[in-house]
Amino acid sequence: MEFNCPSLLILTLVVLFSSILVSNSVFGKTTTTHCEFAAVFNFGDSNSDTGGLSAAFGQAPPPHGETYFHAPAGRYCDGRLVIDFIAGSLGLPYLSAYLDSVGSNFTHGANFATAGSTIRPQNTTLHQSGFSPISLNVQWYEFNDFHRRSQIFRNQGGVFMKLLPKAEDFSRALYTFDIGQNDLTAGYFLNMSTDQVRAYVPDVLGQFQSVIKNIYNQGGRSFWIHNTGPVGCLPYIMDRLPITAGQVDKAGCSGPFNDVAQYFNVKLKETLVRLRMDLPMAAITYVDVYSVKYSLISQATKHGFVHPLQACCGHGGKYNYNKHIGCGGKKTVHGKEILVGKPCKDPSVMINWDGVHFTEAANKWIFDQIVDGSFSDPPIPLHMACHRRPPH
Ligand SMILES: *[C@@H]1O[C@H](CO)[C@@H](O)[C@H](O)[C@H]1NC(C)=O
Ligand SMILES: *[C@@H]1O[C@H](CO)[C@@H](O)[C@H](O)[C@H]1NC(C)=O
Ligand SMILES: *[C@@H]1O[C@H](CO)[C@@H](O)[C@H](O)[C@H]1NC(C)=O
What we know:
This protein is an alpha/beta fold. The chain folds into two domains: 33-302, 3-Layer(aba) Sandwich (Rossmann fold), CATH 3.40.50; 303-372, no CATH class. 36% of the residues lie in helices and 11% in strands. It has eleven helices and ten strands. The chain has helices at residues 6-24, 52-57, 82-89, 126-129, 136-154, 181-189, 194-217, 235-240, 255-278, 289-298, 360-370, and strands at residues 39-44, 109-111, 173-178, 222-226, 283-287, 306-311, 330-333, 336-339, 350-352, 376-377. Strands 2-1-3-4-5-10 form a six-stranded mixed beta sheet, covered by helices on one side. A two-stranded parallel sheet has the order 6-9. Helix 5 (136-154) runs parallel beside helix 7 (194-217), helix 7 (194-217) runs parallel beside helix 9 and helix 10 (289-298) packs across helix 11. The protein starts with 5 loop residues before the first helix and ends in a 15-residue tail after the last strand. The structure holds 2-acetamido-2-deoxy-beta-D-glucopyranose (NAG) (3 copies). Residues 93, 105, 107-108, 159, 162-163 line the site of one 2-acetamido-2-deoxy-beta-D-glucopyranose (NAG). This is Alpha-L-fucosidase. InterPro entries: GDSL (IPR001087), SGNH_hydro_sf (IPR036514), SGNH_plant_lipase-like (IPR035669). Pfam families: Lipase_GDSL (PF00657). Residues 1-28 form the signal peptide.
């Protein structure tokens, strides 16, 4: 190409450059800064459940919620979860659980996660195995129904205008995912070997991929996907699934279970590479929360925490965890009910809350590590997750 006029060259470069910027953002805007997400739609398990399981299967008992909400708030935590910090940081209210039919406000999103959810539907009941019947495919049905019906009602006007998202907000929303951990533990609790669990990971991720495609086909464009954490460092795994001394890793965690989690994460990352090719308009950000959580647990003291492998709220044993008496659990002694699943004195220096979930303090710390994109692939911060590539 030849230019005989420098201003034409500059103009051409400007046009070229801005078209690159346009194609970089799934919102089709030239902005390279914040995405201004109108809503967050979350899919997941207890790591991000803000009231789903509680609404349908019984409220998480006190002392859950004590630190921040000062009462049970549908979360398996003493306070806020990573998803709460995500919503807050985007300037949006905390997400109402889709299943919460009282007091919910879905103007800026909805939360489909329930504690105990898996990606694949389980063949056992909640009562038998502890896994939620609201698996990821069901969360998708709920989202699909919500998308359609919210618009029918919004068009009727009145109070619905103040409770439901606008039609255009579905493509201007951030779709967040934190799910997979229970798909792995479901196999362990059925006494499968770690090789048997590995063998079904491709099936799990195949089902995960279908849900992302379904949401994309309904206009979803920005996806923020957490990988699965070091489940082998959680008291409920270490207590219930004993290993040999040689299998303990350098942080004191169960090596084999962490290996499977890392295998799942490698396969998840590969799945997302394929999805980016199949869904050319999608911005898909993979977030390595595994590394963040592992570094918190293995270097607890350095980060201002103590007893990384013990639950704050629990009862007895090496890990202050007892599968029969959970956090908030009571025992009848001489005809009197007494609380034995008691919280520790200072949850703000503990990492693990109840043997399965993280404390609010840990969740805040985890959020602070991931918000700026340091653990994202591509390296995109939360506020720029509508971009397919890091903005320059
Ligand atoms: C449940 O059973 C069906 C039919 O046997 C099987 O295809 C599916 O993989 C099972 N699901 C799980 C999570 O094991
Ligand atoms: C729901 O939340 C939005 C945004 O925070 C607010 O503008 C609206 O008034 C709320 N709706 C109701 C009925 O309170
Ligand atoms: C797994 O093995 C343990 C110990 O042998 C046994 O008590 C339990 O019933 C088994 N669980 C299943 C689901 O087979």
